[in-house]
Fold this sequence. Notes:
- The chain has about 375 residues and is of the alpha/beta class.
- It has helices at about 20, 40-55, 75-85, 100-115, 130-135, 170-190, 190-205, 210-230, 245-255, 260-280, 285-295, 310-315, 345-355, and strands spanning about 1-5, 10-15, 35-40, 60-65, 95-100, 120-125, 140-145, 145-155, 160-165, 330-335, 335-340.
- It binds nicotinamide-adenine-dinucleotide and zinc ion.
- Zinc ion binds next to helix 10.
Amino acid sequence: MKKLLKYNSCNVLISNNLFNELNYNFNIIKNKRILIITNKLIASLYLSKLKKLFDSVTNYLKYIIIPDGEKYKTMTTVNNIILILLKKNYDNNTIIVSFGGGVISDISGFIASIYKRGIDIIHIPTTLLAQVDACIGNKNSINHKYGKNMIGTFYEPKLILIGLNFLNTLPKKEIYSGLSEIIKYGIIMDKNFFFWIKRNLENLISLKLKLLYQCVTTCCKLKVNIINKNKINNTSRVLLNFGHTFGHAIEKYTNYNYWSHGSAIAVGIIIATYVSLNLNIIKIKHAKLIRSLIIKAKLPIIGPKNMNVNDYINIIKYDKKNNVDSINLILPVSIGTAKIFCNVDKKIIIKSILDSKQDLLSKI
Ligand SMILES: NC(=O)c1ccc[n+]([C@@H]2O[C@H](COP(=O)([O-])OP(=O)(O)OC[C@H]3O[C@@H](n4cnc5c(N)ncnc54)[C@H](O)[C@@H]3O)[C@@H](O)[C@H]2O)c1
Ligand SMILES: [Zn+2]
């Protein structure tokens, strides 16, 4: 197990196999009440192994198993968990271990941040998407009927433990979903990484360990880099939302069912790229490169068939980046660079959604 990086006081450790290589001095856990939050699927695969791992450092370990799925990333789930914590009288000496994908880390992080004004949390991400993105960066959120991730906090975990072994049981469609956020990093901030992904995509999909290690490491570093920059320039962090305005609209429209987060973001990346094309801020050559990498990663480029332009507009007006009536978007300018554009013309947005529906880039 290697130390990947440290941001503020949080260590991020990475290993090929968390259960065989965890040589970490768990001082932060000693004499604490450990509460694992996970879902049924992950529990059936890995919970007994994880419990064994913590056995030597604590004599108090319990777990809560919640239903699987984005549609449970709600206040109802948060309330149910908090009710258990209060009933069992969990105190400030409790440490939550979030054990799962981004849904679990978002819910658990939110609870840790508000329960008794904040208790400790460790993340053990088990999806590619959570390892490269959701677990890093201190943000957590839950969905609301008015939109995705509408309620949340910033809260720093004590430790993040990444085990690449978890990806062996992940369905391929969840690997593709993770690739969407990985491609996002390349487009918004690192041209060389974009072309590295392009060269190594097949081996990443087939989980070649050395490449996966390099990929997860690069993404974590890129994200921490952008977050650190945020302390100086608070517009940089918002770049991470590239593709998310339209992507979140798709997730909400489909009731957080059927579309994985990454698939929705892939279409969001494509629509944002059409907005750039229609504003003449990106070359066709670069837009085509983005489209072809998304396709190569087996991600969709067209949103739900029955979702029309008004459906998108009605949802994106609630996006967190907007101010009152102005729609603000993160748009690609070239491979490796993106910027925030404020008050983007609604007509351009509408045209871009329609262009994406026709896959216009395949015809020019
Ligand atoms: N807080 C942030 O900064 C941030 C960043 C990016 C994404 N997110 C959030 O993350 C969520 C998406 O995360 P996700 O893609 O991990 O989805 P997810 O948590 O729903 O996991 C996807 C599926 O994989 C299953 N799974 C998890 N680990 C597994 C394993 N090792 N083997 C087999 N199956 C496994 C899960 O049970 C689930 O069915 C979204 O809610 C998104 O908003 C948050
Ligand atoms: Zn995302």
